[in-house]
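Suppose you are handed a protein chain with no further information: no name, no annotation, nothing but its sequence. What can you learn? This example shows the usual starting point.
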Amino acid sequence: MPLPLQPAALQRPQVAPAAILAHLGHQVLRAPPSRVCAHFSPQWSLMPRTLDGQITLEKTPSYFVTREAPGRIHGMSPDTKLIVVVRNPVTRAISDYAQTLSKTPGLPSFRALAFRHGLGPVDTAWSAVRIGLYAQHLTNWLRLFPLSRFLFVSGERLVSDPAGEVGRVQDFLGLKRVVTDKHFYFNATKGFPCLKKAQGGSRPRCLGKSKGRPHPRVPEAVVRRLRDFYRPFNRRFYQMTGQDFGWD
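A reasonable first move is to predict its three-dimensional structure. Written in structure tokens, the prediction is:
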């Protein structure tokens, strides 16, 4: 999911929000220094040491949809704070397909992959569709983590109001609201905000060439069927999170 901030591994709380909102389903890890590298060798041995007053962030798109991830992260630190960026699952699926198509020319049509037998049942075995079943994935996480450990960020609002959503992130992490609307400008060519220094200076940081690519044209009948399919899952997700993301 293309979003307006660049990923990075940072230790300074003042710039933490700029590191965490790059793709669908990213989580933020906050752990005491003694536990950051205590588990998951070798991958956790690559995490920077966290000192008092610092927050270490780590993000991976597949965490939210990986069944084993909650148990592993809980085993590392049950106090971990988790940030999940979500967008309309229909738009997300089409974006996923567009990214795959750019790397694999000759891929079957979106319709052929999303449905069985023409416009038959939706094929939830296809990852582009399955990832958008947010309620199912969240259920897996809530077996170990209370809802209070999560912040759900709207991908749509992150584009239309990046400062507002990043402000929520800073509040959730207990950080001073350093990143504000002065740090963003809208790039009409890419269709997304870019990050800049409030007082000018260095060049703005925008998404790379692989982000913001045009989506393939998908027949309205296909989009409508997917909207109908996702609607009950979306509504359950709204109830679980206490947020209406307005996808219906």
